[in-house]
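Please discuss these two lines.
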Amino acid sequence: MLAGPLTTTETYVFDAASPRRKEAALADLREGLASWRLAWALARLDLRNRYRGSIIGPFWMTLSTVLMVAGLGLLYSRLLGLSLTDYLPHLTVSLVVWNTISIMVTDACTTMTGAEGVIRQLRVPFTVHAMRTVFRNALTAAHSLPLVLAVLLIFQQIPGPEGLLALPGLVLLLTNAFFASMLLGMACARFRDIGPIVANVMQLSFFLTPILWKPELLKNLAVYLPLNPFYAVLETIRGPLVEGGGAPLTWLAAVLYTLLFGAIAMAFFVRFRGRLAFWV
């Protein structure tokens, strides 16, 4: 365990009787946040390498979302008996936000294993790898923002001042993505079976979360929707854009879920940070 920033005169110091896990984890967090420019540069490099040779690059995800919005919008508006004017903006924002949540959660599983070479050879704060995953997927998701704006303009559902509430909702989403990258990145490095389990959970959650359908279709049971953490986080962004700001209970649930998830992620990070290099 490092007693502090490494210089030419410092050596690795580890006391098995007093491992100082909390101090080391907090130092890692501070150094990682201070190195956000490194995480940003690595995220951009990841995207360039991922789409090398591609003509439209990350816009393939946008094109896929356009096709889904067009096909599912026409079908489900008929099946659910909803007007296309009301349903398509809801579906568009829902799919864009959900795709962002889904890709961040699933990609979080490979946060540490994907950086195996760096972890084994260089002293880089582990939190840099978590931010790298968040930045990489945030950049990819940003390519779908023009689609949201276009649909809202076409159907004349431009949000009012309450639309600014989507910004703190976005902060909550990115914060949860950071905690997921830390927790799932470490857990999947130790137990490789967790990745497929997470993928199956996300697939099931897609149908249990009001994305293709609207919350009011549950009628009296809609009051229980905040128990779904994915719904709570999604609604803090979708609500301000298409539903007038979102219910206060949903915001409260999203904040509480974020605090709880953050506490679990940090506790896991403090306890097992020293073993991560042996797990990847």
Notes: Residues 84-108 form the longest helix (25 residues). The chain has a mean pLDDT of 88.
